[in-house]
Every structure is written in C-alpha cells, then in structure tokens.
Amino acid sequence: MKLTPKQAAFVDAYIETGNASEAARLAGYSEKTAFRSGQQNMQKYAIKQAIEARQAEIRSKRTADITEVMEFLTSALRGEVTDENIVTEGCGDGISEARIIETRISSRDRLNAAQQLLKRFPRQMDVAEQEARIKRLASELESLEKANGVESVQIIDDLREDDMDEETQ
Questions:
Q1: Are the C-beta atoms of residues 58 and 76 closer than 8 Å to each other?
Q2: Which residues pair with 84 in a beta bridge?
Q3: pLDDT at 163 (0 to 100)
Q4: pTM to 2 decimals?
Q5: Where are the domains of the chain?
Q6: Burial of residue 107, with CB atoms counted within 10 A of its CB: 0-12 exposed, 13-18 middle, 19 or more buried
Q7: Rounded Cα distance, 29 and 41, in Å
C-alpha cells in the first residue's frame, strides 16, 4: 500500500525524532490531534513497514559488512591507510606553528591488520601442522605396538544401527 504524502512525512519525522506525537506535528497534523494521529499512524501496517524498512536501510548504511572490513584490513596491511598527525614546528623568535600532516600507519598497525586478516582465513600452516602431528602420533603408536608385541591395532565398531536409534530417542 502506498503512503500518502502526509504519512510519508510522518515516517520521515518519526525516523528523525523517535516520537509519534512529535512526528505527527512535524508532518502537518494539527496540534490538537497530534497525539492521537501519531498513535493511529503507528498502528497502521503500511506505516510500520515503511518505518522498519527505513531503519533497516539506515542500519545497513551505518554498519560495515564483512567485505568492507576485509577491504579495510587489506588496505591497512598494504600501507594504504593514513593517519593525521599534528606537528608543531618552530618559526623563529619563540613562535611555533602547528599543522596537520598525513602519514602512513605504523608497522605495528600493519602487523595487527595482518593478524586480524589471518584470523579470518584457514591457514595452510595449520594444515601442515596437523599433518605433522598425525605422522608423529602414527610413528609413536607404531613404536608402542612394537614395544608391547602388538602387530596392529584394529578398531571394531560394535554399535549396530538400531543401537544408535535407541540412543537418539
């Protein structure tokens, strides 16, 4: 359902003020009926939907999504992000001037960005680490088997499917 111009103005004013009575006054409803008109408007489905849609739009514009965060961290890592710094310089005769200069972010900040990025990606080093641990454990198991005179270990699954069904019930 399409909103009337007055209802659209009410939605805009409500988003701005968060107060139904004030929004009604700002939208052009009379002073005497502003409270009642505001309450009635807030009960109308089309107006509630319009308010919710606008609030969602505002939230999405204000809130960074994962792509924006990843792009910022990447640009920080690459040294593309700058900081503003205030520098005071002497001009002579005891007079100094302050000015703002832009500098690239520090190595520490770039390293921090790299660490933040790595937290968001599965690392190849983790895979290699896991494979090395598995090989080491396999060799330890083999040496223990030989030390105890066991030729091999066999794991037997003695649970039947109907046992599993009983456990889940």
A1: no
A2: 102
A3: 52
A4: 0.41
A5: 5-62, 66-108, 123-155
A6: exposed
A7: 11
| DSSP string over the chain | -PPPHHHHHHHHHHHHH--HHHHHHHHT--TTTHHHHHHHHHH-HHHHHHHHHHHHHHHHHHS--HHHHHHHHHHHHTT--EEEEEEEEEEETTEEEEEEEEEEPPHHHHHHHHHHHHHTS--HHHHHHHHHHHHHHHHHHHHHHHHTT-----------HHHHHHHH-
Span 65-93, pLDDT tens digits: 788 888 998 999 898 998 888 988 888 88
- Higher pLDDT: 103 or 143? It is 103
- Nearest CA-CA partner of 118 in 129, 110, 130: 110
Give 83's contacts (C-beta < 8 A, 6+ positions apart): 102, 103, 104, 105
pLDDT of 57: 84
Q: Is residue 164's pLDDT more than 70?
A: no
Q: What is the model's pLDDT at position 33?
A: 92
Q: Six-digit token pair at 116?
A: 């933040």
Return the higher-pLDDT residue of 155 and 23: 23
Query: What is the third-level CATH fold of 5-62?
Result: Arc Repressor Mutant, subunit A (1.10.10)
Tracing tokens 């009604």 back to the chain, one arrives at 24
